[in-house]
Amino acid sequence: MKSAEAPLKVTAKKTVEQLPRIRQGDIFCDILVTENIEVSGSQLFKDELFFPYVICLNQECDLVNDYNNGERNRDSSLLHLAIAPAFIFEKFLTGSHWGEIFVNGPTGKRSDTKIKAIIDNEIPRYHYLKFIEPEMPELIVDFKHFFSINRNYLYGKIAQRLCSVDDLFREKINQRFSYYISRIGLPIE
What we know:
Layout: E1 26-40, E2 43-56, H1 60-69, E3 80-88, H2 89-94, H3 113-119, E4 126-129, E5 139-142, E6 147-150, H4 151-156, E7 161-164, H5 167-181
Antiparallel strand pairs: 1-2, 1-7, 2-3, 3-5, 3-6, 4-5
């Protein structure tokens, strides 16, 4: 007799409230990030990276203050927002999630021990998102490759916000991100 696979546990939920401002845990679609600009003679070369999904990692209080300050340019306003790439989990499993940015082989299968640990959010580098809402994709956030993006650019993409992660879940994401970037690096032997 075959045993049934255990259902995947839910690790994220969308919030019902959609605000006109960016929130901690907002997930945006189709974001272009300028990587490099070079001028050679009369030609301008611009390298951009495309991310199908990114998640905002800034603290909620900083985002509220920034929004409330508007264009007053106080020192509590934000110039850039911290974001991390989020990938479709199935592409992550096949190793195709970075596209042409990095060359990766297959990561593994859901049944592999390492992948199970990622799904259970036991590996600090990654945060797995399985939403309650069936229309939402399974995503994997990679904290290793977080970066900043111009605040005004992301506000210009607010219509491309896929969702805002509910309070409880977004706090967990931020705790895990903070843990990852504050870890003590040890030499490889």
